[in-house]
Amino acid sequence: MKGHKLFNLIPLLLILPLPLVAQVNWKAPESLDAKANKVSVASGRAVVVTANPLASEAALKTLKEGGTAMDAVITAQTVLSVVEPQSSGLGGGAFLLYWNQANKTLHALDGRETAPAEIEKAIWTTHDGKAVSWLRATRSLSAIGVPGTTALLWEGHRLFGRLTWKSNFKQSIHLAREGFIPSHRFLKSISLAKKIGVKHSQTFKALYLPNGSLPSQKMLFRNQKLASTLSRIAKGGVNEFYRGGIANELIHDLQAQQDSQAPLKTITNKDLASYKVQKRNPLCRKYKSWQICAVPPPSSGGVAVLQALGTYELLSKKGWSEETTNHWHVLAESLRVADADRSHWIGDPIDWPVPLKGLLEDSYIKKRANTIQTDSTTSNPLPGQPKGGELLNLASQPRTTNGGTTHLVVVDSDGNVASYTASVETVFGSRYMSGGMILNNQLTDFSFLSSVAGKPIANRIGSKKRPMSSMSPVIVFHENRPVLAVGSPGGWLIPHYITNALIRTLDFNLPLKEVVSKKILSVGPNQTILEKNNPWSSTHENLSKRLQNLGHQIKYSPFSSGLAIIQWDKGSWHGAADPRREGKAVSLP
Length: 589
Prior knowledge:
Elements: E1 4-5, E2 40-44, E3 46-50, H1 53-64, H2 69-83, E4 93-100, E5 105-111, H3 134-138, H4 149-160, H5 170-178, H6 184-196, H7 202-208, H8 224-242, H9 245-256, H10 269-273, E6 278-280, E7 283-287, E8 290-294, H11 301-315, H12 325-345, H13 356-360, H14 362-370, E9 404-411, E10 417-425, E11 433-434, E12 437-438, E13 451-452, E14 455-456, E15 474-478, E16 481-487, H15 494-507, H16 512-517, E17 521-523, E18 528-531, H17 540-549, E19 554-557, E20 564-569, E21 572-577, E22 584-588
Parallel strand pairs: 18-19
Antiparallel strand pairs: 1-5, 2-21, 3-9, 3-22, 4-5, 4-10, 5-6, 7-8, 8-15, 9-10, 11-12, 13-14, 15-16, 16-20, 17-18, 20-21
Helix pairs in contact: 1-2, 2-4, 2-5, 5-8, 11-12, 11-14, 11-15
């Protein structure tokens, strides 16, 4: 795909009844108390924000050595594979939005996992047609999709890298081989994985639960197999991963886990060898004086952010603030309407023609806004009928859960900007491993049911399809130059987190420190969810009551956002990391 001039840009895991497992909070398994963590901020001519201090420092070192934002992304992701394997890694998938300053073009790379060519369409249903349990699905070999992260990094490096491919792996290889002190979040995530279930994976238990116990915070944690894998990829590149020894070992490891009595169809050497990164057209829409750009389907997140902002713009009033009840009401309703559309219309475009143009047309956004009442809430809104969707007689998919995901943003000294989100799906993915890598369970992001009442679901399972994602890397432009990049982990709630952050930044002009740390509002089909354990100011109780008076069914919940954001302001770049996780912002002066 050729880069797109800005002027030419055209504007899950199914939630099922789950058994309680050792008090696991399924909505926000990795959430932290924001009050207990300081917000990391940094300013300068180049800025990096990642979800882990070691990854941030490694990426900054790459920039100091003359690397581009893409080189920094590769460094950060490979380090995160070592120090934050619960969230992302080379056994997972990713999306990248990249601004190339030299030729003023924006690029979108899709490294989402794919289903095997010979996938069984009923892998998530029982003999009587009912969906299998989430716990059973997430630890199944059938949940593992063809990984796309390595291919995306390779393609990104080919297009935008300056340092050698091999040099971008040095720091991750060193950390995997020599070790690092496990963080609180790292150990907490291992505990969560144990509660979800790890009995099916001896390799996981041997590495992350030696002798049945958590690793010690007083000893260096090493992953020698991953160090070897990283070294081989650094030397052999993308071919080593998809067609070489690593590919052969991955398939061998999967086959060794098979139940001889009831073997499952999993990815094959042919599936690995045929994987390709998709170069997508960035998805952009004007919001007031800004141009907001995101990645298109199979991500549903970008569509949801653009729709929610478009609806909010039509219904919001000048002078609103975060103390204004109507702000929170309209935000909640805008998110709820966007959710109804993405659960209905979005899937991999190789299966169904997603009516993107219709979903983002001004006239359609206005129709959706007109369904919202400013003095009362609408429970469980229906999807709209955009142009291009008239012949698609689809059913909606229930919303999905949160998972193991990471986000990072980078701007280099040349002005190249990267907004990158990666995932292995559930915390530590499937918990299956190969070559020290965590293997994803992204195929559980497909709808467990292929149809409802005879109507197909857009995000149904299919050969070589990419499951719908909520990952939403975003870059914002003003007067044809990038001024903001943002994204977050958080599963289905990612677009909610990002919409909160964009309105705070663009409409309310809040400092980034407040943008990433203040209270968050999210929604379900029938509920309005306010963040628990984060102060809603002195008007907290009154705001809750005022929203209830408008018909909102209020629920409180911790959130596992991990916002990473950079902004151009007053002649320099500024960055901030969400205090709910352990992210860090660093910079070159």
